[in-house]
Amino acid sequence: MEGAGSDAASTVAPIARWKSDFARAFQYYLDRSTPHITERWLGTLAVAAVYMFRVYHVRGFYIVSYGLGIYILNLLIGFMSPKVDPQLEILDGAALPTKESDEFRPFIRRLPEFKFWYSITKAFCIAFLMTFFSVFDVPVFWPILLCYWVALFVLTMKRQIMHMIKYRYVPFSIGKQRYTGKNIAASGAGLMKD
């Protein structure tokens, strides 16, 4: 009896070790990709293009695409929302400033950019894998799903934009002034000339 148990344990140990090594290597490369925002999003666009080509090529899996669209819309709302919603939570000092006299507080997202990117990329990969199983190819009239998704997107974005206007916050940093600090090399060179 001991021989049978040790055989099972000896086959499980390499699998567990491989799984642990794979998870460690995956986390290492995921951590290394953190500062490369443009490259990460270009990779996600490539994955999305492969998924869309697959759906177009097989002419099916529209319900999977609809579910993916709803999930991405949900992630987008989390990405555009403040961490502390002044409408729902008790103000504990971490809320957005609402008056000119309030102290400046930076916009902190409910869903950080990295998690937003990672969730979208993972969703496209899972949806791509689902296109290889016919059980997920439910026959539907796709124009109805597309119209419903567009209506849902417009209504959700309208509500989110009204929330942004009401509480005066902008979730994007495009065009905002960034302070980089003093240029040490330039100031050091100026001191050397004197």
In short:
By secondary structure, the chain is mainly alpha-helical. Helix content is 65%, strand content 0%. The longest helix is centred in the first third of the chain and has 31 residues.
Question: What is the fold's blueprint, element by element?
Answer:
Layout: H1 2-32, H2 37-58, H3 62-80, H4 113-130, H5 142-167, H6 184-193
Helix pairs in contact: 2-4, 3-4, 3-5
Family: Belongs to the RER1 family.
Main location: membrane
Keywords: Membrane, Transmembrane, Transmembrane helix
Order of helices and strands: HHHHHH
Largest sheet: none
Note the beta-strand portion: under 5%
Mean pLDDT value: 82
Give the helix tally.
6
Helix content: 55-70%
User: What is the radius of gyration?
Assistant: 24 Å
Could you give the distance between the termini? Answer: 87 Å
The total domain count is 1
Low-pLDDT stretches are none
Overview of the molecule:
By secondary structure, the protein is mainly alpha-helical. It has one domain (12-171). The chain has six helices and no strands. The chain has helices spanning 2-32, 37-58, 62-80, 113-130, 142-167, 184-193. Helix 3 packs antiparallel against helix 4 (113-130) and helix 3 (62-80) packs parallel to helix 5 (142-167). The mean pLDDT is 82.
